[in-house]
Structures are given as C-alpha cells and as structure tokens.
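Review this fold:
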Amino acid sequence: MSAPRNVAIQRAMHLVLDQNFPFQVTGIPWPRDLQITPLARLASHLIRDYDDWQVLDELAHRGDVDGFITNDADMLNLPTEMVVLRDTHLILVVTDHVGHDPLRATGLLMVHLPTILKQPVGKPNIYILRPGQLTPTSPDVQINKIASRQGVPPPHVIAQERRRIGRGG
C-alpha cells in the first residue's frame, strides 16, 4: 500500500482505466497533476480471467496507482470487491447511468475530474458519477447495503469475503 500523497512529495494522481472504459478518453491532454493509464497497457494480464477484486488488489499493491475508473456499476454490489477496496488506499470512480456510451462516459468523467483531483488520496473512497450529480461514498456504505440485502451484519460480510479470498476472518 502506498502512502498518501502529501505536499512534500507531490506526484500526479495515477488513475487506471478499466478495459471496459472507453479508450478514447486516454487521448485527451490531462492536467499535469493527473496520470491516466489503460489497464491493458499497465497490466495486460489483468484484463482476462481476473475478477474485479483481484484487479483492485493488484493495483493497490503496485504502490504507484491511486485509483481505478470503470463504467461497471455492478461492481458496487459485489461484496468481495467492496471488502478488498475497503482494505486498500484506492479510490474507485464509477460512471453510472451512461451505458457503454463512450462520449457520455468520457464527458461525465471530465466534468467531475477537477473535484476528484482535489480530494485527499490514501484512503479508500468511491465516486459514483451520474449525469447531474457526484455521489461520494465509501466501501463501508456499500458493504452496509450488501449486508442489509443479505440480512446479515456488515462484519459478517467482511469476514466471509476475507475468508473466501484467503485473508482470514
């Protein structure tokens, strides 16, 4: 896990684009305090036969990645993914309600990136980007929703998912 960015050792925020995110977004000249890399270029082995939680876990352990951008809003309802995210320092940026429309997904990301760049990094956070709103939340909020749907307490979901992926309980 990398240390949070601070003023003394400022580096560009490094966000990785999921393979399902429109590739066109990478050709845009980004601000100097932002680096965006497609997952296929950063770690091509992760785009086949890996669950989203494994992608998040590997990105977190690289030490040079601050977050992950996807248009797969279903990830927010997956307990393993939320528990793994909770255990990292990564931010998760999800474009929602735009389907797989590259223009809308790119525009939505562009509108909200200045706000996301101003947020502190180094602790897990989720930015759900929907047309007309920015909804910051946390893995714990999503885990609470999952637990509620399952009719179990949140610590049960966390322990169950950690056991399932071999991280104890």
